[in-house]
Amino acid sequence: MSGATQAAGEPRARPQVLVLRALGLGDLLTVVPCLRALRRSMPDSDIVLAAPGRLSAAVKATGLVDRLLPAGAPGRAVPSGLGWAGPAPEVAVDLHGNGPPSHLLLQRLRPGRLLAFRHTGTPDIAGPEWHADEHERDRWCRLLRWYGIEADPADLRIPRPACPSPAPGAVVVHPGADSGARRWPAERFAAVARALDRAGHRVVVTAGAGEERLGRRVAAEAGLSPEAVLGGADDVPFPQLCALVADARCVVVGDTGLAHLATALGTPSVVLFGPVAPRLWGPPPDPWHRVLWRPRAGEDPFRPGDAHGPLPDARLLRITVHEVLEAVEAVLSRDPYAAPARG
Fold first, then answer.
1. Could you tell me if residue 99 is left (phi over 0), alpha (psi between -120 and 50 degrees) or otherwise beta?
2. Which CATH superfamily, name and number, covers 16-146?
3. DSSP single-letter state for residue 14
4. What are the tens digits of pLDDT across the range 66-102?
5. How far apart are CA 266 and CA 64, in angstroms?
6. For the chain, which residues make up each domain, given as ranges?
7. Structure confidence by residue, pLDDT tens digits, 251-297
């Protein structure tokens, strides 16, 4: 291993592959194809993922990472440092950004190889060009392919959890989002939940940490009991959340991590997009995932709004309750024997 000193008779340490992706749940799940490709191409190496510690259960659930190196920064910034100890990694992979801050962070560890996109600020990296209009899954798989590692953006499933669902067969409604720009109004989520409940569906409202008030408001306005809300004071424990989504009939959600979890588990979904186009972050184009997206002529076709703004994006507000209910019905009415295989 690069930089290692080997004493006679000591067992040889496995090579270390360090992957930087210090972002959120959705970001983690979009690079599952890349993690799988790295695991397949370097089976005798340990995959170490630099990502926030709060994602430890989700990282474990992928079954593709040997060790989590806790790392993070506010928003989508690059961490100021990595708590890497021991010999330099054999390979470092920048799945965080297009540099130069993320490049320089990894270069400080002196890896044997650094796989990253080309950038004028780090001219010693001869990687591929960055394309701003590329889907997130396609982008990172293209990076690995440039370096000779086959990666399939459709290879994004994670295993089903072993624990039982707290609400098998429910329609999961998730009204929260990290920013107001991606948060469809609570009263509209409540109207959807109320209509689904009256149509005879079991409805569960999920809420992330700090979203208890939002979740309870949606449930109350929908006429659901407080027990229909999972999470809020804290995140729903990931194994429980994973089981809930895996056994759900459908997930109704904005452009958040839970939408990516539904995709990763093969669960039908209706996903509402606003400031960022589904061409960049949406689920695969198949009939089990319905995307609602209402841009207008003349708007930026990829990022017409501020993804981190405090107020609901204009394109999100153009989506009506009726449209969401129609999309849910279209997903639920499909032949159950033709449902996607869930791994």
1. left
2. Glycogen Phosphorylase B; (3.40.50.2000)
3. P
4. 999 999 999 899 999 999 998 999 999 999 999 999 9
5. 18
6. 16-146, 171-333
7. 999 999 999 999 999 999 999 999 999 999 999 988 899 999 999 99
